Amino acid sequence: MTVNTPAAGSSHPALAGHAIADPSEKRGTNREGGPSTLPAILDTYMQRERLTLQGMADRTGLSLATVAALRSGSRGKRPRPETLEKLAAAMGTNLQTLEDAVGPAQARRERQLIGVFRQLTRADQALVEALAARLGTPYGG
Predict the structure, then answer these.
(1) What is the CATH topology of the domain spanning 35-140?
(2) Averaged over 50-76, what is the pLDDT?
(3) Are 1 and 25 in contact (CB under 8 A)?
(4) First and final CA of the chain: distance in angstroms?
C-alpha cells in the first residue's frame, strides 16, 4: 500500500502530495511490523546481532555466497530444507517461521517469472524452454 503523505515529521512543501511507500512493502514486513520474508528476517537478525555476511556464514555453516543470495532474495528457488534448518538453529528461531517466510515469497517470484515468460514472443519462449531443458530443470519437459 502506498500512502500519499509527506514523510513523518517533515513539513517540507516539496514532499507534500508525493507517494511514500509503506515500510512493510519495502522491508518485507507484516502488518504487525515483524519481518515476513526470508531476506527481511535475515536482515533484521544480522543487524540486531551486528553480523557481516561472513559472520552469518560462519555462524550458520553456510557458504558466504548462499547467505548473500538468501539475504538479497536473489535465489530463484526455494532453499533446501537443510539450509533452513541451519538458519533456524543458528538464529534460535522456529523452523516453521522460516518455512512460512519462504513460501509466499517463492510463490510471488514464480508468478512474476510466469508473467514475464507469457509476455515473450513464441520464439523467445521456445529459447527459454530449450535452455531449461539443457540445464536439466524440471521445467524443461
Answers:
(1) 434 Repressor (Amino-terminal Domain) (1.10.260)
(2) 90
(3) yes
(4) 38
Q: Which whole-number Å values give the CA distances from 54 to 48, 58, 64, 109, in the listed order? A: 15, 6, 6, 26
Band (3; pLDDT cuts 50, 70, 90): very low
Percent of the chain exceeding pLDDT 70 equals 65
* pLDDT tens sequence across 109-125: 777 888 888 999 999 99
The domains of the chain are located at 1-34, 35-140
Sign of the dihedral through C-alpha 9, 12, 13, 16: negative
For residue 117, CA distances in Å to 109, 113, 126, 140 come to 12, 6, 10, 14
